[in-house]
Amino acid sequence: FTLSTLYLAASTNPGVVSREMAAPEEAPSAAPAGYCTACCVQRRPRTHHCRHMRACVDRWDHYCVYIGNAVGSGNHRVFVCFILAATAHAALLTWCAALELLGRAQPWRLASATHALAPALLLLYTAPMGAVLACFSTYHLFLISVNQTSYEYAFKKAYTARANPHDRGCLGNWVGFCGGAPSVAAGEAPD
After folding, report:
1. pLDDT > 90: what percent of the chain?
2. Which of 25, 71, 105, 128 is the most buried (most CB within 10 A)?
3. Looking at the DSSP assignment, which residues form a beta bridge with residue 70?
4. CA-CA distance, 2 to 163, in Å (whole number)?
């Protein structure tokens, strides 16, 4: 499951804004708000230019070097499934390595110590990785609950002084994330 979600997150279109939606062929002398001069497209709210992809991505969250793709409206659900699956996979490997290590640990026997080397090394790798993945998963679950992207939370601290206009309450945000019909605020394009 982990590898299939990794493949889907890496290969799914993250929500690249089509250049066919571009207003003029040439960038206007005074670019209007929301106009990307690099892509020559009029961006919807919450669309940002991804320099790694050289394109504007709808609901751009971040560019993930591990999947080699941007995370946006098109692959955000699959990306969250991937990090949750990777967290569960790391936790399972940590648990199995710990059980194997405890079952074989007999320090008074040299043969037992050499057989315990592989589970010990696996435990030393998967425990910290699992902890990092658990933190990362928790962070993304929190962002879904408040309907923000990583970019908005980290770099646009505007929602600390005023209410987040995209927040529909925790349950509404989860329904919207899971594919339910989102309610659209005045002047906002659907997520």
Report:
1. 24
2. 71
3. 63
4. 36
Residue 157 has a pLDDT of: 63
Neighbouring residues of 127: CB distance < 8 A, sequence distance ≥ 6: 94
**Mean pLDDT value of segment 160-167:** 71
- Strand, coil or helix: 172: helix
DSSP-based three-state secondary structure for 59 = coil
Distances (CA, A) of 52 to 56, 57, 70, 77, 156: 10, 11, 8, 21, 20
d(CA 38, CA 15): 17
Tokens of 126: 């998967």
The predicted-structure confidence for 21-53, as pLDDT tens digits, reads as follows 544 445 455 556 678 878 778 878 888 888 888
Reported pTM:
0.76
Number of other residues whose CB lies within 10 A of the CB of residue 110 = 9
Distance CA 81, CA 6 (A): 9
Count of other CB atoms within 10 angstroms of residue 57: 28
Query: Rounded distance, CA 168 to CA 183, Å?
Result: 8
Residue 16, Cα to own-chain centre: how many angstroms? 16
